[in-house]
What does this fold into?
Amino acid sequence: MSTLRSEARLHESVSEITRLLEKHRVLDTLTHRQEGPKRDLLEHLQHRQNLAELHAKVKTLHPADVAHVLETLPLDERLLVWQQVGTEHMGEVLIEVSDTVRESLIEQTDRQSLVSALATLDADDLAYLADAVPEDLFRDVSRLLDARERSWLQESIAYPEDRIGSLMSREVTFIREQQTIEEVLGYLRSLGELPEQTDRLFVVDARHVLRGALPLERLLLHAPGLLTSAIMDPDVRSFRPEEPAQQAANAFERYDLVSAPVIDERGKLIGRLTVDAVMDFVRLAAERRALERAGLRGEEDLFASIWDSARNRAPWLFINLLTAFFASRVIGVFEETIAGLVALATLMPIVASVGGNTGNQTIALVIRGLALDQVSGDNVRHMLLKEVTVSLVNGLMWGGMMGLFAFTIYRSLPLGLVMMSAVVLNLLVAALVGVAVPLLLHRAGRDPAQGASVLLTFTTDSMGFFLFLGLAKLFLV
It folds into this structure.
């Protein structure tokens, strides 16, 4: 219920800001129609009342909600709302928005305001924004950090974004294995507050080597005189900073983790990975895969300029055009066959469409299996055999139905048999391509989702036309 109320408040806030922006547009239009003292009066009214009301509304919102509002607005209105965000909250908002929207906001913000905004962030958050901020400005902001945080910042940005090191936080609470529960409780009280997502404390020895983890509830359920080493979990899932972030995401999902320690090659505790950072990585990776499957090169601002959007979509559209041209040439080879039996022209799109749908289903399953680390060299053969068998069963069932349909409409048993055979064969092709394309892309070090749909459509269309028209030429014409 609280989530529903939160969503309702967010929608209400978006509607209120939209109303204020509409009011601003009306006043702005009226201002430009007036001359002399009336124009000055309207300008005063516009800036002192409407913008003040907008500023007050934006100020009440959580940075994540402000980010959501900015994502929903066209560029000119987005900038107007962004100007109402104080520099003390700008940095937090920049963290929440998408990459493309963040880029547009940074371009429209003066240098001094950006420095002031980024100065409010800690080293972890600055590392997250490192790629978006101009290099010289980033250096100026990093100089404001103390030596320890600056060292941590440089270490964090050295890791690629798909590695655990880029996601880990230095905010980690650790205790010694020879401390008693009473001493640990006293230490926690002296801290005043714990880092977010703290569900357990990490136990280290005198050399700072990780020895285990102590869930917080055990501090309350055991006698104060017990040593932490007596009640800790010695078997704790830990990660190395150079390991793939997807590997950590799989472990967090499998073991229901809230936090996990990050250690170096000597086993020393150097940081912490939390579920919120992992969720952000999973969400961004899923969004990127969805866009790449559609042939987009990366994130695209919903309200980006026409030129930027067209340029982002162009590469795979060009490839799709080439593949479509190839498919059309396949049809061209059988022009005489189609001319001899016009019914072929109405039926062949069905063969291609069914194959494309089957292949997309297979691709989705294989990509999911790769993401969850469920696909290995030992089970690829079994997976391929299973997908081929499923396609064969579906081909016989739905191909038989399409063959019956063709026979009923055109009163030709040979045409019905050709239709069924083409559907069965194209579904088998779709299964092979649906398994092979993601695996080959993955082995080549590419994202399995990138362009897989375009390559599949090209293959199933071309082979669907070739199989159906080829069989028709052999047995019908």
About this structure: The first helix runs from residue 2 to 33. The beta strands are 174-176, 200-204, 210-215, 259-263, 269-274.
